[in-house]
Design goal:
By secondary structure, the chain is an alpha/beta fold. Helices cover 34% and strands 21% of the residues. It has a single domain, classed as Rossmann fold (3-Layer(aba) Sandwich). The chain contains nine helices and 13 strands.
């Protein structure tokens, strides 16, 4: 089958590798000629185009699944709203964009809860920051404009190989970490995020469903950075003065685990961080 990735980066490239291993033909959108050549070397068919330039968007016919996982490239000069909402609208209204199914990657930033309570897919979405509002508006576009089946995956913070080096440098330099050390972090290892995409795609009962994708155990920020320091051999973390009332939230992944038969390779940072360092 033919698959399409719009946003073939940290997550998308790993999904592409899995699809290729399964014998699928994979296309990926990119603005860069250099990246296009890298895709070709990996056996991925590049499509040169830009979501902010609708006239450049031409997609192949017969796409069974499109993974939409685009991120914000600040060097491009566009705001997050322009890229996430207007760019998505350009794709959805492109005449040749006709996948049989869309899997859209969103974020748990759509939840603004800060009392440390447990939230799930049914919890109110009242974002505390602009990025959450932008993600929520993009989700609304998917629901309103997709004429074929879709899924929205709200991912917690993705971590994994290559994503922890900046944290190592800050820990080694004893730079204060932002945020309440006694507030919760919700995370997902990139390998498990890939698994969630593939499980969602393969499940015919999951169409037009929203899933919260997080690991099994929310952790305190203090626990996370202490584990990182132990793994990197750096001094214990220090934290900035933080709002003690902001305890963030705890994400419940029960729906994904039950409906998608989603067994995590890395159920928590206890297993995932050592495998990523």
């Amino acid at each position: 089958m033919s698959k399409l990735i719009i946003g073939c980066g940290y997550l998308g490239l790993r999904v592409a590798h899995q699809w290729r291993e399964n014998g699928d033909e994979v296309y990926a959108l990119t603005r860069s000629v250099e990246t296009a050549e890298q895709f070709r070397q990996l056996g991925i068919h590049p499509i040169i185009g830009d979501v902010m330039q609708p006239e450049t968007l031409t997609f192949p016919a017969g796409i069974s699944t499109c993974l939409y996982a685009i991120g914000l490239d600040r060097s491009a000069g566009f705001s997050q709203r322009e890229v996430y909402v207007e760019g998505l609208k350009n794709v959805l209204t492109a005449e040749t964009f006709q996948p049989q199914r869309l899997i859209y990657i969103s974020s748990t930033s759509v939840y603004g809860q800060s009392d440390g309570g447990v939230i799930n897919e049914e919890s109110p979405t009242e974002p505390a920051r602009d990025n959450g509002t932008v993600c929520l508006d993009a989700e609304a576009l998917v629901r309103e404009q997709m004429k074929t089946p879709w899924n929205i995956l709200r991912l917690s913070g993705i971590y994994g190989p290559g994503r922890l080096l900046a944290r190592k440098e800050k820990l080694a330099a004893r730079e204060p970490m932002r945020g309440n050390p006694d507030g919760y972090l919700n995370l997902i290892h990139v390998d498990d995020a890939v698994k969630a995409v593939l499980k969602c795609e393969a499940n015919p009962d999951a169409v037009n469903e929203l899933f919260l994708i997080s690991d099994n155990r929310p952790v305190l920020r203090r626990e996370y950075y202490t584990l990182l320091a132990e793994q990197f051999g750096t001094p214990e973390p220090v934290f900035e003065d933080a709002d003690a009332d902001n305890l963030a939230k705890q994400c419940d992944n029960s729906k994904a685990r039950e409906l998608l038969d989603f067994a995590l390779k890395y159920p928590s940072i206890t297993e995932g961080v050592p495998a990523s360092v």
